[in-house]
Write a structure and sequence with these properties.
Layout: H1 2-19, H2 33-51, H3 56-62, E1 71-75, E2 80-85, E3 89-97, E4 101-104
Antiparallel strand pairs: 1-2, 2-3, 3-4
Helix pairs in contact: 2-3
C-alpha cells in the first residue's frame, strides 16, 4: 500500500511541476496559428515551386491547409513567395540556391 501511495504522490508532483511555465521557456509564435500557417505555407510553397520545380497548381494543392486561411502570391522574377492571412499576418520566403533551397525572410 505504501508503494502505491508513493507512486501516486510522485505522479501528482510531476503533474503539478509540469504545469508551471519557466522563465527560460520561450514560445516564438505565442501559439499564433495564423503566423504558423503563413510561415509554413510560404516556405513549403517556395520549396515546391523553385526547388522541386512543380507547377503552381500542384503546389497549391500540396500546401493547402484546412481551413484555407492563407493567400499565396508567387513572384517568379524575384523567386519569392508571399503569404498573408487575416490582413495582419504574412510571410515571405525566397529561393537561395538549389543546395540551400528556400528561406524565410
Amino acid at each position: 500500500m505504501k508503494t502505491w501511495s508513493r507512486v501516486t504522490g510522485l505522479l501528482a508532483c510531476g503533474a503539478i511541476l509540469s504545469c508551471g511555465e519557466s522563465d527560460t521557456v520561450r514560445r516564438p509564435y505565442d501559439n499564433n496559428d495564423l503566423q504558423l500557417v503563413t510561415s509554413y505555407t510560404a516556405k513549403d510553397f517556395c520549396s515546391c515551386v523553385f526547388v522541386m520545380e512543380m507547377s503552381e497548381e500542384y503546389c497549391r494543392r500540396w500546401t493547402k491547409a484546412s481551413p484555407a486561411v492563407a493567400t499565396v502570391h508567387v513572384d517568379y522574377k524575384e523567386r519569392t513567395v508571399r503569404t498573408a492571412a487575416a490582413l495582419l499576418w504574412g510571410e515571405k520566403a525566397r529561393f537561395v540556391s538549389e543546395r540551400d533551397g528556400c528561406v524565410l525572410e
